[in-house]
Amino acid sequence: MSGVLNLFLANSSTVILAPQTISGLQLWLDGEDASTITVTGGRVEQWDDKSGNGNHVSQSNPGQRPTVSTVAGLNALLFVSIDLMNRAANTYTGLGGPIVSIFAVYQKEFVEPADSAPSIINIANGALTAQWGLRGNNIGTVLGAFGDDFVNDVAVIPSPETGADDYFLVSAEINDTTGNITTYLNGVASGTDTGITITVDTTAEDLVVGGLRNSSTFVGHLAEICVYDESLTDEDRQTLEQYFKDKWSVPVA
């Protein structure tokens, strides 16, 4: 592991290793870091990637931009209605598979519309399908990590309580090399699936945060998202879980 950005606990010499200290980091969005957020007219126009890979996400339509809001004393991006942010096809790097390890800290503010299938993050194409991501079912009660096939390539993550004034950590490894998906909720293994595939075409598919192109929008706070292009060791996964726990008070076991 290598890196220079760490989290120091208040009134303590304890150092919690930050996401950049784990190898393979391709995307790091941090809602608490105001220096990475461009606000125009009271709404977020761009959310900068801290990984160093330039995978910034933005929204050109002012009516679809999230806002900066606060849960439990920390800032995050609040997505409502049709809010989402994206990075256009063929402009992102390191996110096409065959392995993606995803970590997302979020708080689900409202019950989504019945047909929303809320999406936290995914690689999506113009047909409104996707090649990997974290997405809910059509009543917002279950979250899953998926490969190419929404129906069959899904490992379920129990959905945390809607409206709870807490952040939750969901994570997944989607591995086209082994054909497996493994998911975790607050550090506890929650689901698996086998026989999955990832066939990302970076010339035709966008990176989307908070939705699936112009549909399946997530409703709630997205606090921090990290994506790696490697299969992480248990030690590295637990290091990241501890980081999110100490920063966002996530109830990691």
| Biggest beta sheet summary | 8 strands, antiparallel
Number of domains: 1
Number of distinct beta strands: 19
Distance between the termini: 24 Å
User: In percent, how much strand structure appears in the residues?
Assistant: 35-45%
Q: Report the average pLDDT across residues.
A: 82
Q: For the CA atoms, what is the radius of gyration?
A: 16 Å
Instruction: Please give the CATH architecture.
Output: Sandwich
Shape: globular
Helix content: under 10%
Find the CATH topology.
Jelly Rolls
Q: What is the CATH first-level class name?
A: Mainly Beta
What features would you describe in this structure?
With 253 residues, the protein is mainly beta. It has one domain (21-237): Jelly Rolls (Sandwich), CATH 2.60.120. Helices cover 6% and strands 42% of the residues. It has one helix and 19 strands. It has one helix at residues 234-248, and strands spanning 6-8, 15-17, 25-30, 37-40, 43-47, 57-58, 67-71, 74-79, 85-87, 99-107, 119-125, 130-136, 142-146, 154-158, 168-175, 180-185, 188-194, 205-209, 220-228. The strands form four sheets. Strands 3, 7, 8, 10, 15, 16, 17 and 19 form an eight-stranded antiparallel beta sheet that branches. It has a six-stranded antiparallel beta sheet with strand order 9-18-11-12-13-14, with no helix packed on it. A three-stranded antiparallel beta sheet has the order 4-5-6, with no helix packed on it. It is globular. The two termini are 24 Å apart. The model is unreliable at 1-5 and 7-15 (pLDDT under 50).
